[in-house]
Amino acid sequence: MVGPKIRIDQVSYSYGNEQALRDISLDIPANRITVFFGPAGGGKTTLLRLVNRLNDLVEDTRMSGRILIDGDDIYSPGVNVPNLRRRVGMVFALPLPLPGTIRENIVYGPKLAGIHDRGRLEEIIERSLIQAALWDEVNTRLDSPAGALSGGQQQRLCIARSLALEPEVLLLDEPTSGLDPISTRKVEESLFELRDLYTIVIVPHSIQQAARVADYAAFFLMGELIEFQPGSEIFTTTRDKRTEDYLTGRFG
Ligand SMILES: Nc1ncnc2c1ncn2[C@@H]1O[C@H](COP(=O)(O)OP(=O)(O)OP(=O)(O)O)[C@@H](O)[C@H]1O
């Protein structure tokens, strides 16, 4: 059997005196979409950020347990963090394109990574925009400003920018929270395209979105992982009463 792409092993995490994650263990499979869902403050964002070490600079925090990618502990002393972040891309709630053109946005990361060959960069632009389901809408205007794109297009550009670095894992934190339904649908469609190539973990912006995209779903409540199941099951046959209460709107 193939091991998990990401293994969360007994992770607890606190900000000061406040415990945000309590003894979380979870195996995240490759080439699937895993959703972290649950009410605000449950620890979803914190866990996502720990997977690419975005919380390294947050002061007065404590972590125990391990996070493994392909079996290697990403918090062991020798780990090259910039390299880890190339392997593990992150897309945030608000699309924040860089100033400059669509083309410049995509090639920025690859150039920093030392790729300067024009032909290679053109390939990267086309591949990442196709994968992010944006190519058809922008291929005739790659040199126009990224800021002129619609919100939904800007978010797909941010996804394309992550994909330009050929990550293995893509983490998305409420990537469609500010988008209209059509743009939301396009971003979701691009996730389905990407699933074959990447390991995707997403904090969805609604239960409905969780149900639409989840191959696997993890329900978080006040820092605890309440249950983890194939998406088709967690939304139909919940094991835990608390998950059911949340899904049926008894609390939010
Ligand atoms: N930088 C921080 N400093 C202090 N406390 C924090 C910080 N970030 C998160 N927390 C606290 O950790 C807990 C978990 O927050 P987290 O954002 O991970 O939850 P969440 O499930 O993603 O919620 P949301 O849907 O609101 O983003 C909350 O109680 C929150 O107040």
TrEMBL record:
Start and end residues of each ABC transporter domain: 6-247
Signal peptide: none
Keywords on record: ATP-binding, Nucleotide-binding, Phosphate transport, Transport
Molecular function via GO: ATP binding; ATP hydrolysis activity; phosphate transmembrane transporter activity
PROSITE patterns, per the entry: ABC_TRANSPORTER_1 (PS00211), ABC_TRANSPORTER_2 (PS50893)
CC terms in the record's Gene Ontology section: membrane
Presence of the UniProt keyword Methyltransferase in the record: no
Keyword Cell inner membrane: no
InterPro entries to which the protein is assigned, alphabetical: AAA+_ATPase (IPR003593), ABC_transporter-like_ATP-bd (IPR003439), ABC_transporter-like_CS (IPR017871), P-loop_NTPase (IPR027417), PstB-like (IPR005670)
GO terms for biological process, alphabetical: phosphate ion transmembrane transport
UniProt-recorded name of the protein: ABC transporter related
Biological source species: Syntrophobacter fumaroxidans (strain DSM 10017 / MPOB)
Lineage: Bacteria, Pseudomonadati, Thermodesulfobacteriota, Syntrophobacteria, Syntrophobacterales
